[in-house]
Amino acid sequence: MRRSHPWINNFNNWLISACRSNMDIKFIWSGNDAKALVYYITDYVTKSTLAFHDMFALAQQGVKSIEQQRVTHSIDSAIEKSRKLVLRCYNMIASQQEVSGVQVASYLMNYDDHYTTHTFRNLFLISIENYLQAELSKARLQEKDIDEERLEDMTTPFDEEQEEDTKQTEEQFLLEPTQTKNGARFVMVNTRLGYQHRSKDLTALCLYDFVSHFHKKLIDKSDRRLIKNANGSEGERLDTEGTKMNERYTFESAHPQASSHIVMKHTNPVVPH
């Protein structure tokens, strides 16, 4: 169709054939035009959240539906009733939330919801600090010749809140993916144990650099050959010169997984956080 009306956009036959969709070509003259266009596109592809009064009304509907079910089904425990209440309120609110076509397509195509220039790795310092504090207290008590029975008598009992906080800050074991010849697998990782029983060649590394540059890996056939060439030594660097393998180190014998896992250097460092 010939552009004979001021409200019809310019078009290009080649771009229309390539894109197979509607098009609107505009030359961006200045930074203000670019900012305005970015704002327009962002506002167009995203949908605002529901107003508070709308969310409150939907949550109220969810509560009413749960109350009606209690009349006929009253055998559920308090925890199960609470879970159903929260789930019903969430479903009521989520069902009324507008979602743009771009968001739906991004979800169906498994696109990331954010983009970063680096890869990040979790580092739980609180549990490590608690472990160090406990070991320091034990060392000080040993210097004063205080045995464990007397230590328990001297310890102030915790209340329920303090016990819950202590459980949340205990040492944690994480599942992290590792690549093998048979595909991706997962390994149990405890940062404190891995750092404490690392190879003596990595003694100069601080905890942050150790997490940033190294990760634990399950031993495969090629690793076993390297370990065999190193005479089965523990806490040593494996000889990978002349190969395309990343640097590899064995754990000290005190590590509970020294016979099944090694430490391997990242191709690209990660950022602990």
Query: Spatial order of the strands in the main sheet?
Result: 4-6-5
Series of H and E elements: HHHHHEHHHEEHHEHEEE
Q: In total, how many domains does the architecture comprise?
A: 3
| Straight-line N-to-C gap | 57 Å
Name the average pLDDT.
79
What percent strand? 5-15%
Could you describe the largest sheet, including whether it forms a barrel?
Answer: 3 strands, antiparallel
Q: How does the overall form come out from the CA principal axes?
A: extended
Helix share of residues?
40-55%
Walk me through this protein's architecture.
The protein has 273 residues and is mostly helical. It folds into three domains: 1-48, no CATH class; 52-97; 118-150 and 165-273, no CATH class. The protein has helices at residues 13-19, 31-45, 52-72, 78-95, 101-108, 125-143, 148-154, 160-168, 191-196, 207-213, 221-229; strands spanning 120-121, 174-180, 183-189, 214-218, 248-250, 261-265, 271-272. The protein has a three-stranded antiparallel sheet. A two-stranded parallel ribbon has the order 1-7. The chain is extended, with a radius of gyration of 30 Å. The protein starts with 12 loop residues before the first helix and ends with a strand. The model has no long low-confidence stretch (mean pLDDT 79).
